Amino acid sequence: MNLTERYNKPTPKFFRTLRNIGIALAATGGAILAAPISLPALVLTIAGYLTVAGTVATTVSQAVVADIDDEGLDDE
């Protein structure tokens, strides 16, 4: 299975939820980093970590595929 096939297969419900949380984290961190006001270094460091963690969680969660034979698979 190549990467394109993997990304086109259905994702289990838990990982769809985790993907959405990762997207929210990355968006929040990116918004804080892009803020036009001056923020303390600690806040910017935490925002950087949020962005990286959200991006990684989103990417990994999207790459998980469900087997067709799973009993608990929810169709979208």
Strand content: under 5%
Q: Which segments are poorly predicted (pLDDT under 50) over 5 or more consecutive residues?
A: none
For the sheet with most strands, the description reads: none
Helix content: 55-70%
Q: What's the end-to-end separation, in Å?
A: 22 Å
Give the helix tally.
3
User: How much is the average pLDDT?
Assistant: 86
Spatial extent as radius of gyration: 16 Å
The structural domain count equals 1
Order of helices and strands: HHH
How many strand units? 0
- Give the overall shape: elongated
Transmembrane segments: 21-50
Organism: Namhaeicola litoreus
Protein name: Holin
Keywords: Membrane, Transmembrane, Transmembrane helix
Key descriptive features of the protein:
76 residues; 66% helix; elongated; membrane; transmembrane helix; Holin; transmembrane
Write up what this structure looks like.
- The longest helix has 23 residues, at 41-63.
- Helix 2 runs antiparallel to helix 3 (41-63).
- The mean pLDDT is 86.
- The protein is elongated.
- It has helices at residues 3-8, 13-33, 41-63.
- The protein has 76 residues and is mostly helical.
- The protein has three helices and no strands.
- The protein has one domain (9-63).
